[in-house]
Design brief:
Elements lengths: L8 E4 L1 H4 L10 H14 L3 E5 L4 H13 L5 E7 L5 H8 L5 E5 L11 H16 L4 E6 L7 H13 L5 E5 L6 H12 L6 E5 L6 H10 L4 E4 L13 H10 L11 H12 L16 E2 L24 E2 L16
Parallel strand pairs: 1-2, 1-8, 2-3, 3-4, 4-5, 5-6, 6-7, 7-8, 9-10
């Protein structure tokens, strides 16, 4: 057995999911700046092309290429739509890889399981003929029968998909179920399994961790958790969590604060002072019980992310004793 530390790959989706954040848009220069931050952090892949914006987003990729940034570019194409073949062909020579999406919800076309399988097989067969890496992604995996998820993943694997991505599309999952689902898929496919989590119940980070425990080899993340509705799993939170658990990601955590600040500035979405990892207040100590030993109340060294510990004097008047403040 190898003594090497386990590894998890990050695929950052800020330039795709970020544009689904209400009120957010990126100019070409801003998109390149975000991609540059991701490359500096050591993120190996940026998912840039959305299935609803293929032609426009490919122009962003071309500009990133012209800038010579050391990051792979990928995008999504719906495998259940007539334009699938044309869009996949347009990505050749621009993207490093595409992932064909097949929504598993019966409320989305095609509605029957048989039709979904047929469409998946046809789209993968066509994509395999192209000079591009091809994976398969399954929206709504946490909302349907797990046996169906496993069946679709096995078919995608058999048809040559080089990556399987499971989506918690509506953010309704919980980490124990995610771990079990991912483990079930991992046990029956040879392709690496990725997990894409949304934060509608505040569980995106926990669900991503559950996926890792289930054997996921990759996670979709975004800077500051930007994304549709309540956002996505946060790059900075997962980078620190996995580092603390001895799992290699290749992320330079010292650059997380700066990257977060860039994402905040270009998106216009403010970062809470209480935000994990990058919030301005997370290393502030005011409770008297913290003052002698502040490191005992911190999850990680503030220097890891370029922050500094701040110790404030307690309130001069308090109805509670010193020992009752803080935990």
């Amino acid at each position: 057995m190898s003594d090497a530390a386990p590894t998890v790959t990050f695929r950052d989706s800020t330039l795709r999911e970020g544009l689904d954040t209400p009120g957010v848009s990126f100019s070409m220069a801003q998109a390149v700046e975000i991609a540059s931050c991701l490359a500096d952090l050591g993120v190996p892949e940026a998912e840039i092309v959305a299935p609803s914006r293929v032609a426009n987003d490919l122009e962003i990729v071309r500009e990133i290429r012209r800038q010579g940034l050391a990051i792979r570019a990928s995008g999504l194409v719906y495998g259940n739509r007539p334009e699938c073949f044309r869009e996949a062909e347009s990505a050749v020579g621009v993207l490093d890889r595409i992932d064909l999406l097949m929504p598993l919800s019966p409320q989305r076309e095609p509605t029957s399981r048989e039709e979904k399988i047929s469409a998946l097989v046809k789209s993968l067969a066509h994509a395999r003929e192209l000079a591009i890496e091809v994976g398969a992604g399954f929206p709504h995996t946490t909302q349907v029968d797990p046996e169906f998820v496993v069946e679709m993943a096995r078919r995608a694997d058999a048809e040559g998909a080089t990556r399987i991505t499971l989506y918690d599309t509506n953010g309704s999952a919980e980490p124990f179920a995610v771990r079990q689902l991912v483990a079930s898929v991992v046990s029956c496919v040879s392709a690496p399994v990725f997990f894409h989590g949304h934060d509608d119940l505040g569980l995106a980070t926990a669900n991503a961790w559950g996926a890792v425990l289930g054997g996921a080899r990759g996670l979709d993340v975004t800077l500051n958790g930007l994304g549709d509705r309540a956002g996505n799993a946060s790059l900075e939170q997962l980078a620190l969590l996995l580092r603390l658990r001895g799992i290699e990601t290749g992320i330079e955590v010292a650059g997380l604060k700066r990257a977060s600040q860039v994402a905040e500035r270009v998106s216009g979405v403010p970062v809470s002072k209480l935000a994990p990892v990058v919030g301005d207040s997370i290393f502030d100590h005011k409770s008297p019980t913290h003052l002698p030993i502040p490191a005992e109340f911190e999850a990680f060294d503030p220097g890891w992310v370029g922050s500094e510990r701040r110790v404030s004097a307690p309130d001069p008047v308090s109805p509670r004793s010193d020992d009752s403040r803080g935990d």
